[in-house]
């Protein structure tokens, strides 16, 4: 099958879904610009900052589009490109984008609080505590996995390390220009984007060669500082500017793929199981992970994005639209892998891993528009590391939020809720897992399962919220049930597998996550059973 045809069909389906199903959900949620957003009601200049839609879109998309929609689909095609592609399309439209949009809307109606904090309203204080433990553990896994990926990328492509380091002062300058000096956004954007490409050129001219351990230390130090820095000074402008690199990657990959016209040579269906990953059900669904749905997105939507929206009406394009855009990236990644033969695919994974495979394939696509393959591959690797880094610093901030919320209203609140302490504990926990530089693929299935279960729990919270408002909620219920079944099955399989290979640390984490998920699912069922015995919650 021609890869270009597959990409065009997927894009058409996504556009149709946005203007039909996305709008239908918007109406069900009662999205209205007449209702003031949390950024206006609680503006504090640090986390709650009213921001233009284009800037928030850049921040949100750069934060959610890490290496997940690249690594997941590339690993998922081992079962064949057809089941992976079907899950990317169906999962995005009916589950992933619904999850992101509803999580964002629910946070907007709860003063921009995180999904973890909102659970207290519907699952009680104990439910909130368990959810925050689950969310915090998942974020620690995200920090560990993405630190390993970025550090390895910087070792393999030292030019990406130089450019990424230069992006930090550029972002700070952009934040100062737009917020302190009130320079027009268009002018500041033009200057900032031009500076980014100068930084890319400097990176290729002066590559910064450091060891893996040195990069890990620098990355963890950076995210620790980024976690406590005002959102308008570093996180928001960095993500906004970096999103332009991602747009260039998407557009370049899209156009290059259409001109290159690769044929999908990998099998459409390779079988019901894989000796390395396991059975297609449920492992495919947690391996593709962020390419179809990601619980991490609910933490971004409710943790940082909801605090920045200027108008409620922006929620559809940022919540539903960003996930579909990530689905396009996942489809390009799938085609980049499926254009290889089975032997070529296996060799590419063995030699450099999914990120290297993706970089080389997109470098080949770029050659059709006159970009040398080596330069194209370096630019792709740089871009991947850049938005993986945006996911890293967002994860550290969200992990800090979860840690602080867990210890609120306790006798340890005075010092454990301090930003510095919460950040230090979160980052150190991720560092302990990141020390093993060969652990990315070992942790990926567990990361995927934890991430997808987090999505199921977020959908459960949204379902209970809509139940209390007496709003029809089957469009949330069915995805929540499906994700619970898939991820509980995956976690059970991972517990058995890790015990068999004597990886007791990952087995213990899987047991904790599975137990927490079962507790919250049971608690949610009991709360829903009693939901209609209480007055419907008033609209906020």
Explain what this protein looks like in three dimensions.
The chain has 540 residues and is mostly helical. The protein has a single domain, classed as Amino acid/polyamine transporter I (Up-down Bundle), CATH 1.20.1740. Helices cover 76% and strands 1% of the residues. The chain contains 21 helices and two strands. Strands 1-2 form a two-stranded antiparallel sheet. A hairpin with a 3-residue loop joins strand 1 and strand 2.
Structure summarized in a few sentences:
The chain is mostly helical. The chain has helices spanning 3-29, 38-41, 53-64, 68-76, 81-108, 115-156, 158-180, 185-205, 212-228, 235-260, 280-288, 295-303, 315-338, 342-351, 353-366, 373-406, 413-416, 419-434, 440-468, 474-500, 504-529; strands spanning 273-274, 278-279.
Keywords:
Amino acid/polyamine transporter I, about 0% strand, mainly alpha
Strand and helix layout:
Elements: H1 3-29, H2 38-41, H3 53-64, H4 68-76, H5 81-108, H6 115-156, H7 158-180, H8 185-205, H9 212-228, H10 235-260, E1 273-274, E2 278-279, H11 280-288, H12 295-303, H13 315-338, H14 342-351, H15 353-366, H16 373-406, H17 413-416, H18 419-434, H19 440-468, H20 474-500, H21 504-529
Antiparallel strand pairs: 1-2
């Amino acid at each position: 099958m021609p890869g270009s045809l597959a990409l065009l069909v997927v894009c058409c389906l996504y556009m149709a879904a946005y203007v039909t199903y996305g709008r239908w959900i918007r109406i069900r949620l009662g999205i209205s610009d007449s209702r003031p957003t949390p950024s206006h009601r609680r503006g504090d200049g640090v986390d709650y900052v009213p921001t233009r839609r284009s800037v928030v879109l850049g921040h949100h998309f750069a934060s959610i589009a890490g290496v997940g929609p690249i690594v997941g689909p590339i690993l998922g095609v081992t079962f064949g490109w057809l089941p992976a592609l079907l899950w990317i399309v169906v999962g995005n439209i009916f589950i992933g984008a619904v999850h992101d949009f509803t999580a964002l809307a629910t946070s907007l109606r709860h003063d921009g609080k995180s999904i973890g904090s909102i659970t207290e309203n519907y699952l009680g204080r104990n439910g909130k505590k368990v959810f925050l433990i689950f969310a915090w553990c998942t974020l620690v896994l995200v920090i560990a996995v993405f630190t390993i990926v970025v550090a390895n990328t910087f070792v393999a492509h030292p030019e990406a390390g130089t450019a990424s380091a230069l992006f930090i002062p550029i972002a700070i300058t952009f934040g100062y220009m737009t917020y302190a000096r009130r320079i027009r956004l268009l002018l500041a954007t033009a200057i900032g984007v031009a500076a980014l490409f100068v930084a890319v050129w400097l990176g290729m001219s002066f590559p910064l060669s450091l060891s893996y351990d040195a990069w890990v230390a620098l990355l963890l130090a950076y995210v620790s500082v980024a976690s406590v820095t005002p959102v308008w000074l570093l996180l928001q402008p960095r993500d906004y500017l970096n999103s332009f690199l991602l747009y260039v990657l998407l557009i370049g990959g899209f156009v290059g793929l259409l001109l290159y016209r690769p044929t999908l040579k990998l099998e459409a269906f390779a079988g019901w199981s894989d000796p390395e990953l396991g059975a297609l059900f449920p492992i495919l669904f947690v391996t593709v992970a962020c390419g179809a749905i990601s619980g991490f997105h609910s933490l971004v939507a409710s943790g940082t994005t909801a605090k920045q929206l200027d108008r409620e009406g922006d929620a559809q394009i940022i919540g539903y639209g960003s996930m579909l855009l990530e689905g396009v990236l996942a489809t390009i990644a799938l085609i980049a892998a499926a254009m290889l033969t089975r032997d070529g695919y296996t060799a590419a994974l063995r030699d450099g891993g999914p990120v290297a495979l993706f970089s080389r394939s997109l470098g080949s696509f770029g050659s059709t528009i006159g970009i040398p393959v080596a330069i194209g591959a370096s630019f792709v690797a740089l871009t991947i590391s850049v938005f993986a880094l945006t996911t890293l610093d967002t994860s550290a901030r969200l992990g800090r939020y979860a840690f602080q919320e867990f210890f609120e209203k306790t006798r340890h609140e005075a010092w454990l809720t301090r930003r510095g302490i919460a950040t230090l504990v979160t980052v150190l926990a991720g560092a302990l897992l990141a020390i093993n530089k060969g652990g990315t693929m070992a942790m990926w299935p567990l990361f995927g399962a934890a991430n997808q279960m987090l999505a199921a729990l977020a959908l459960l919270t949204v379902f209970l919220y809509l139940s209390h408002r007496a709003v029809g909620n089957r469009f949330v219920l069915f995805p929540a049930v499906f994700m619970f079944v898939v991820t509980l099955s995956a976690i059970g399989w991972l517990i058995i597998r890790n015990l068999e290979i004597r990886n007791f640390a990952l087995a213990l984490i899987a047991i904790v996550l599975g137990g927490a998920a079962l507790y919250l699912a049971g608690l949610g069922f009991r709360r829903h059973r009693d939901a209609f015995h209480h007055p419907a919650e008033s609209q906020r």
